[in-house]
Fold this protein.
Amino acid sequence: MKLLICGGAGYIGSHMVKRLLEKNIEPVVADNLATGHRQAVPENVSLYQGDIRDGAFLDKIFRENKINGVIHFAADSLVGESMKAPLKYFGNNVGGMQSLLEAMVRADVDKLIFSSTAAVYGEPENIPIEEGDRKNPVNPYGESKLMMERMMRWVCLAHGLRYVALRYFNAAGAADDGTIGEDHPVETHLIPLILQTALGQRDHITIFGDDYPTQDGTCIRDYIHVTDLADAHLLAMKYLIDGRESAAFNLGNGTGFSVREVIEAAERVTGKPLKVELGQRRQGDPAQLVASGKNARRVLGWQPEYTSVEAIITTAWRWHSIHPDGYEK
Ligand code: UDP
């Protein structure tokens, strides 16, 4: 089996590629390397460098490879940036999905696993969040991903393509062997920022608001390990290959940790006390996002391996300690 991994040089995509190779499934990577890293893709994997908004680029990949299905990670994914540059998100994420769907229809490739997000829900009506709950994104990032999900649904009806949308909560951690991990051009995510502080690369970690309606006033998120996410994609592809119908699943541990709890866990893992400052709320951040992952467990048979935030941070700390400056530039 050969799968096209759009965004396979990025953080989650590269862990997907690693997992596929471990399972003897051949990945073909498409990545514009805007935020991905060539070094995150093993040399024996075909890497097509280009933008998925370029239909001719995608046609060439489909022509040169017999692709059985697509796993799509190629998108901008920063909540804060999306508030400041919404059109970048609609252009790249929604435009990218349109171009990918068009190329898949042309090439007659009919299975798509899509990296969606908890941000499609906005401020949740219930905790834990169920897949059928109200979707009311509070930032352009979440809005763009919801639009992408809806585009797939209509293409499914018109062209018979089937998809699984996987709504991740907070992806974190790194490959167990420390070979690949998180390295963003401008780091904005909580766990890498905390670990860079532990490495002495930053003076302090800022908590974005402590006046949320949560037990310690800081935002609560559901952290899920990146290789557990990769496993869910593989199970979702198997689900489509088995002929099952299009669906959306939440991917989370079902347990929330506050920003303060994550900082304390990182202090335990690294053995280093961290300087913490209190800052303003970040625009577009819901107070609490925790998944009900029961459908992914029941329907896909997904069983996350990393269920504690310490275990997740331990793998991330290994990556950051071995690669303090990320991938070689
Ligand atoms: N956060 C924080 N300080 C930081 C970065 C993030 O307090 O320097 C908080 C952020 O407000 C959110 C949580 O940590 O509540 C996780 O943020 P991240 O950017 O890692 O992921 P997101 O929830 O945006 O996907």
Summary: The pocket of uridine-5'-diphosphate is lined by residues 79, 170, 188-190, 193, 205-208, 219, 221, 259, 282, 285 (CB under 6 Å). The radius of gyration is 19 Å.
